[in-house]
Amino acid sequence: MxxxxxxxxxxxxCLATGIYEMWFxxxxxxxxxxxxxxxxxxxxxxxxxxxxxxSICRIEGDELRIVYRVTGKGTGTEEFSxxxxxxxxxxxxxxxxxxxxxxxxxxxxxxLFGGGIGVPPxxxxxxxxxxxxxxxxxxxxxLFLNKEFESYGNVSIATEDGSCGTKGNVLDAVKALGxxxxxxxxxxxxxxxxxxxxxxxxxxxxxYISLEEKMACGIGACLACVCKTKEKDHHSQVNNTRICKEGxxxxxxxxxx
Amino acid sequence: xxxMSVNIAGVExxxxxxxxxxTFGSGMEYGDYVDLNRLGAVTTKGVANVPWPGxxxxxxxxxxxxxxxxxxxxxxxxxxxxxxxIPFLKQYDTKIIVNVCGxxxxxxxxxxxxxxxxxxxxxxxNISCPxxxxxxxxxxxxxxxxxxxxxxxxxxxxxxxxxxxxxxVTDITEMARAVEAGGADAVSMINTLTGMKIDINRRTxxxxxxxxxxxxxxIKPVAVRxxxxxxxxxxxxxxxxxxIASAEDALEFIMAGATAVAVGTANxxxxxxxxKVIDGIEQYMTKNNIADIKELIGCVK
Lengths: 257, 301
Description:
The complex is a heterodimer.
Chain A: E1 3-16, E2 19-25, H1 29-32, E3 38-42, E4 52-60, E5 63-69, H2 76-81, E6 88-95, E7 110-115, H3 120-128, E8 133-139, H4 146-149, E9 154-159, E10 166-167, H5 170-177, E11 183-187, H6 190-203, E12 206-210, E13 226-229, E14 240-242, E15 249-251, E16 255-256
Parallel strand pairs in A: 7-8, 7-11, 8-9, 9-10, 11-12
Antiparallel strand pairs in A: 1-2, 1-6, 2-5, 3-4, 3-6, 4-5, 12-15, 13-14, 13-16
Chain B: E1 6-8, E2 11-13, E3 17-19, E4 41-43, E5 60-63, E6 66-69, H1 78-90, E7 95-100, H2 105-114, E8 122-126, H3 137-140, H4 143-156, E9 161-164, H5 172-181, E10 186-189, E11 193-196, E12 198-199, E13 204-205, E14 211-215, H6 220-231, E15 238-241, H7 247-256, E16 260-263, H8 266-269, H9 273-287
Parallel strand pairs in B: 3-16, 4-7, 7-8, 8-9, 9-10, 10-15, 15-16
Antiparallel strand pairs in B: 1-2, 5-6, 6-14, 11-14, 12-13
Helix pairs in contact in B: 2-4, 4-5, 6-7, 7-9
């Protein structure tokens, strides 16, 4: 079940250059939200029609927290970044499948990967997963949210410029530090997910990845946000599946990146 | 109590509001937000005789007051559609308009024949999709071919046939006359306007197909003008669409000559738009003492 709500913002702040957080109070959304799901956030500017799909970073009581990147001047995300507590927005959600924290594999030793703006959804997952876990976070340079992961597992950092942790990407950190796990959860840019998918296949590790794509409806009707699948998709009858509906979390071996 | 019912080719719609094909799936995904029983009709996403995989991604891009899409008519094919989507829609008290697409005349005829025994109220023939290389718009930009497709479909169709017109032509009335001559029972208009957006950061086209169909409030004045022109050129009923996001928008189309209207891109912005449009039209009629919506159809001469 998902909902359309006019929500009241309770807190906003800037976490790093161009990275913002927003907390808002919901009537129903937070009650049913799961880690890995997302919400559609609508601009208050009538010239911007489409929702901005943003992952859920935190579920606390009746509040949701989203952390997002401002994608440019005059964008919807820039509008959101200028909003303050007390202001209102249209939000729809929670949308998509999310991670299954009660699955049989969820008790296995896990590696959680977050890259860039793929870091935020891993926070609620780290909180809800009841297992031994290594958390590997990749950034270009500036860190954000990394401290908040520390109470949930062993946190390792990789930065492209080497300013913190391992110089390189998240898999460079895994190799450098000898990190091992029996199930992988990952969210981040496509090249990172492609590399993690290959790493998981080579090492025979179960792997769940969260994908993103441009969306129009966010609820599975418009078929804008599809990704290629190995097998014929049950709903679409072609080798294409809906990221917003069947995803955004997929078993890595079932999708082609 | 006002009378909002309208008649399209012998099919009575309880109110003039449907959805634009491709923006609403077959209604399943909108169940959390809209009571489908409220709609005059549900127009389903284009379906072909066999499954189509559609175009590469990205398939959409936002533009000022609108969007560009190049989905490429991805669809599960008629077998799945008939066994899954139609039984779903039959649970509701609304009319069913099935949008049919094809790459060749034979594809259209095959699909329409397969739909013959299905509990479907109206067929909408998509000869105007700008995003597929073969068929689609090719039939919608040449009056002779549009007439031929209409005749071929009409020869086998068991339901009334709506021809969906493209705005990407020099004179839309020429196309309207062609499908009327071909025996169409109604027209729907407009499909999207071919557009392009460049992503200056990636220095390439914003949608993988390079061009896509522009829709949304940005195109509404073009659509209203075309509905007015066609209403004055042919006798067939018109289902008007193109940027409708409110009752006020819908009333413009109706006054320009549309018998029914379709909400499209606005469904993405607010999934409850259809119901708000229906309620808004009713309020307008009550406030202005209009007993029957037929008084408003084409009232602006």
